[in-house]
Amino acid sequence: MNFVLLLLGLVGVARGYRILVVFPLPSRSHYILGNGVGRGLANAGHDVTVIAPYEDKNAPKNYKNVVLTGVEDALWKGEAKEKFNPVENGKVHPWFTMLFVLNFMGNHMIEKVLGHPNFQKVLKEQFDVVIVEQFRNDAMKALGCHFNAPLIMVSSVGVHTWVVADTGSPIPPSYVPDMSLSYTSDMNLLERGFNLLTQLVYYLNSYLLFYPAQKAVAQKYFPKCANNELIISNVSLYFINSHESTNEPVPAAPNMVNIGGYHISPPKELPADLKTFLDNAKEGVVYFSMGSNIKFSELGPEVTQAIVRAFKKIKQKVLWKYDGDELPGKPGNVKIAKWFPQADILAHPNVKLFITHGGLLSTLETIYHGVPVLTLPVFGDQRLNAARTEIFGYGLAIDFFELNEENFSDAIEKMLSDPKYFNTAKKRSVLFHDRPMKPVDSLVYWTEYIARHRGAPHLKVAGFNLPWYKYFLVDVIVVFVLLPVLLLYLLVKKLCSKASKRGQKKNKSD
């Protein structure tokens, strides 16, 4: 029997598995990760269907695009745009973002995606493995049940409370900061206390508000699966978009696999104008990009002009990803464009500094190529990533909302003049590349492993199946700590009462 199962597994690999990849968030950076998953598996010979708001127009022949048309507008316009404005969200308390912005985004987005006609058509097909990005979309975990296929989740922002809830892996608040905070593993007393409270707020929010709302949506679209408690606990494997060279090490269950950097391809030849610009930069080049969500054309002129004046002072050339058609006061050493091939630019030896918002993809790419980084974090995990660049020694950080010409100029000057940042970035790059296999190969191997072993339940830790009160030893604390203390209190109280009564009787007899 075992021989037959092994033979069937080998036949499955030979013909390729049918794999569904769902990355529903209408964000270009998240789509890059989803497309990386799809292309990696398709290039390995599997039949891949990718559901996303965007399309890969040069996809491999065994890669099928299912485009969620209109979802991007649904999330970034009207009421949704007001709630998801990245600059405004960066100014509010992280608990507010958790309770209102992310809850609204998750519940708003999941309806738009699951109810989309292109998504509904895919539900009639069959797949061997389902891969879904985890980003406030827990109702989609019902897809594993719907297709009767193993479910793999992808954490695009590293290890955090969303992951450990599905794996049973510990996340000690004493040294693992929440992704919304700008802490590192070396937290002081107040930071550890606030980190613990943030985790508690997350769990209360999830179990009292978010999960019930997601389960209601799942019941609407997957009535045969949503009543099963496994809707929030049927994950076979977690791919984590991180690596020890860029993220601080944290505990990981056997079904958590680091594949940080899998989306990065070997550098390609640059367009002629960019190649000439970089080749002729004798003093080096500073590359500046704030990702796809920060639009300088929508910001006030104060921040933009402070940056312009700072760049005017340096002798290096500057490539600035700028979304506007014109940049008032643009210095002669600055070249602007609405898009640059970021990874290919970072690979050029004349790039001396990368200035970025601190997104995880940019952080991974800068370490891949060994370029020091100045981060200007705005929201989400960017502050956490920025703090790591400083503690690891290959970068500096300035909060975007505290940015001015003086501190920006000082940071650039310091990083360009002190070789320690460049040297440390190169050392980190060596660590990044020193792995048993390339991250994309690890992605392929573990996907096939989960398919071969039908979810590989043997990888799940026992804590995964424990109710919360057992996992956190609440019952032990009650029985062996609180109960004895209560009994001792009652006993002392009773003895004191008897002693008091005897004293009163003695006084009366006297």
What order do the strands of the largest sheet run in, or round the barrel if closed? Answer: 3-2-1-4-5-6-7
Number of domains: 3
User: Uncertain regions: pLDDT < 50 for 5+ in a row?
Assistant: 1-13
Main beta-sheet annotation: 7 strands, parallel
CATH superfamily of the largest domain, please? Glycogen Phosphorylase B
The shape, in one word, is: globular
Q: What fraction, in percent, of the residue positions are helical?
A: 40-55%
Structural class: alpha/beta
Average per-residue pLDDT, rounded, comes to 89
CATH topology of the largest domain: Rossmann fold
Query: Which value, in Å, is the CA radius of gyration?
Result: 27 Å
Instruction: Just name the CATH architecture of the largest domain.
Output: 3-Layer(aba) Sandwich
The number of distinct β-strands equals 13
CATH class of the largest domain: Alpha Beta
Query: Which percent range describes the beta-strand content?
Result: 5-15%
**In DSSP terms, counting alpha (H) and pi (I) runs of 4 or more, how many helices?**
21
Distance between the termini: 93 Å
